């Protein structure tokens, strides 16, 4: 777990100051969102928490929300 934290801290130290210096706010927001998702999934994996399948969400979207039936 410490290795995961060190890797993510290293990535932040390298990327974020440059984005702030260049005032690329949209890129910083997109990077932060993807970074948080990646960190959360990595942390769940390291801690042994089962990671939810994205297929369950897609099935719910297709069948329940859009009403499309498939065999």
General description of the model:
The chain is mainly α and 71 residues long. It has one domain (2-65). It is built from three helices and no strands. Helix 1 packs antiparallel against helix 2 (25-47). The longest helix has 23 residues, at 25-47. It is flat. The termini are far apart. The mean pLDDT is 92.
Shape: flat
Number of domains: 1
Mean pLDDT: 92
Category from helices, strands and their pairing: mainly alpha
What is the C-alpha radius of gyration, as a whole number of Å?
17 Å
- Total number of helices: 3
Give, in order, the helices and strands: HHH
β-sheet strand percentage: under 5%
Can you give the helix content as a percent range? Answer: over 70%
Q: Unreliable runs, pLDDT <50, ≥5 residues?
A: none
* Record field, number of beta strands: 0
* Biggest sheet architecture: none
- Cα(first) to Cα(last) distance is 42 Å
Task: Furnish the topology, listing elements before pairings.
Elements: H1 2-21, H2 25-47, H3 54-65
Keywords:
mainly alpha, single chain, flat, 71 residues
Summarize the structure.
The protein has 71 residues and is mainly α. Helices cover 77% and strands 0% of the residues. It has one domain.
